[in-house]
Structure formats: C-alpha cells, structure tokens
Specification:
alpha+beta; five-stranded antiparallel beta sheet
C-alpha cells in the first residue's frame, strides 16, 4: 500500500525547455510525466503550458523520478534554476511566476503549494461533506 499523495504540476511555456532538459537526464522521470499521469495536457490547458496530475501516487523522495521533479520545483521556487539568470530575468521575471506545484498527502495537514503560475485556478480546496 504505502502513503499516497495527489499532485498537480503546471509548467508554463517559459520554463518548458528547462523542465524537458531536467527530464531528459532521467528515463524514469520522463516516463512518469509522459506515460504515468492520470491527466496530461501539453498546450491544451493554457497557451503553451504543460499540466500534469497524479492521484494516489507514492511521492517518495527515495524514488529517482520524484527527485528529478522535486529538484526542478525547488530550483524554480528558490530562484536557482540553472540558465535562468542574466537577461532572461529582466524580461521574464522569476521562475516561480511560470510554474505551479501542489501536493496533498493522505494526512489532512500534509500539503505543499509552490509557485505563482495559475494561482487562482490550481489550489487546494477543503470542504466539509456530510
């Protein structure tokens, strides 16, 4: 069984080349994105965005493919994405403006929310049902 999470990642067209380069280093990460998502859109959701959704996934840091995606998210969130510095930042702003990562775990208080892209459209919503 194991601990399961629900994850959504949106990568804007500005970051798409960086994301694809990160995936290219790992066949496992490439397969996770292009073959093992519950929902995948490339250019369909918004102009040039890649949108991925995984439900009931073991989002374990011990898995290489998860580490590749987590490192990409971390680098974008901390403005340490290799190659982004220089003239691009003047024109495009910071990487966090071009991606969105949201993860909820099985535990009620286990959640991650990073990036500013599509903030109003991709978010965690909690409700009481009876």
């Amino acid at each position: 069984m194991g601990y399961r999470s629900t994850v959504v990642l949106a990568v804007g067209k500005e970051l798409k080349p960086y994301f694809l380069a990160a995936l290219a280093a790992s066949p496992e990460a490439t397969a996770l994105v292009f073959k093992h998502t519950d929902h995948f859109e490339d250019d369909g959701y918004d102009d040039g965005v890649m949108l991925m959704h995984w439900s009931s996934i073991k989002w374990y840091e011990s898995h290489e493919e998860i580490n590749v995606i987590n490192k990409f998210v971390h680098d974008c969130d901390n403005e340490s994405l290799e190659g982004w510095e220089g003239a691009q930042t003047d024109e495009l702003g910071i990487p966090a403006e071009h991606f969105r990562f949201v993860r909820t775990g099985a535990d009620y208080d286990d959640a991650e929310d990073k990036g500013e892209y599509l903030w109003g459209e991709i978010h965690i919503a909690r409700e009481i049902q009876f």
